[in-house]
Amino acid sequence: MTPRPPGPRWRRALARLVALAVVGAAVAVTVVALQDRADLRDEAHATAHGAVEDLVAVDEGEARIADLEAAIRAADAAAATDDGGTVAIITALDTLQTLRDRIALAELELSRVTAVSDEQVRQLGILRTCAAALEQVRMRVRDGDTAGASAALAAGADGCKDAETLIEGSIAAAHPFDFADPQVMLAGGTYYAFGTNGPGGTVQVLSSADLSDWDVRGSALASLPGWARNGFTWAPAAIRTGTTFTLFYTVRQLGTEKQCITRATATDPAGPYVDTSTGPLICQLGEAGSIDPSPYTDEAGNLYLTWKSEGETVGGGAAIWMAPLAPDGSKITWFPTRLLTVDREWEGRTIEGPSMARAGGTWILLYSANSWSSAAYATGYATCEGPSGPCTKPADNRVLQSNGDREGPGGAEMFRTAGGRLKVAYAAWDAGEVGVPNPRRLHLGTASMTPLGLRIS
Hints:
This protein is of the alpha+beta class. It is built from 5 helices and 20 strands.
């Protein structure tokens, strides 16, 4: 994979400011594109709200445990003379263990949310320090104070160097901030990238005219439906459906606490998307839930959806599925078909993140496998007889894996450019920085079928 040459506007702006300090001549200032602060503040509030909800759940769970332990002691006393007391003890112990397991999960999620929130606050502080320094330079240039502008630039050099390191990350990254599970859609000559919740919002959305310079558009999703838990939205993917656009995404269902797939619609490709559903579009509770939706169409314009079931989380096996959809994406119109399961050593226990497209006359199914938070995470592919399968994995089917400048590449989604080229959007950790709270940055590659199989460069 060839690293993309530096291109974002902030980098060109910084280069011009550095040139000012060197030559001491006229200063040109370019507006630096930073994260919209209102969006970041809203995201921080949402993160904090989710953390408080988890903390309340932990407190309530601990109070319930105290009640159950008292009930066990009472039942234990009764058990000496009453067989019913023994049954009560067993029932209470089962309930207690289930509750303890749920509390442990809530505490783990609370820890993760807190770590991510703290890291985002730290990164925002670095960016604001550099922005303040550049603002001082701008003001002095406006006042004709060239010497003062040079001095202000020199004073802020260290802060902006930290900001440059933070934003640049891997030189090949297309976007500097965390942008997991990316998907790109072309609409009206503009590319829109959607990503899992992060610094840009509940469903992050970017836009670009050339796949090089990306503008942050905030959150694509207006709000979650009432049956979904706030703070847990993953793997969004959008597609045009007639005169509107439909966004498929993953949420956590209240009550079952399982992952489920839902949809929202908008008239503008960037949103806001509105979800009016009263329940999931797809939620395979028998398979422990459904995640990672990815829509696609065949040559006739028929709409389909692929996704992943979470059987491995309850002792079963993960699987990739597909089903045809109604033209507006509102419902599946036939029974789901299982396309792939785990059967390769490199896959570990998980396959997920499917994406289907036609490449060189062949239907290709991309998928990710292994643990998403490790360097072993990678992207493989299968070839399919049609948009609904069946699909077969080639012998050597890994097409993206950890290399020199990025680790754990996955969540890959294929899309077409305006010129018809097949591209791939995926996320990866910077080399040596695998795991939360480090960011998984957006990368772009080109997919092609060769006599040796699929290649992504």
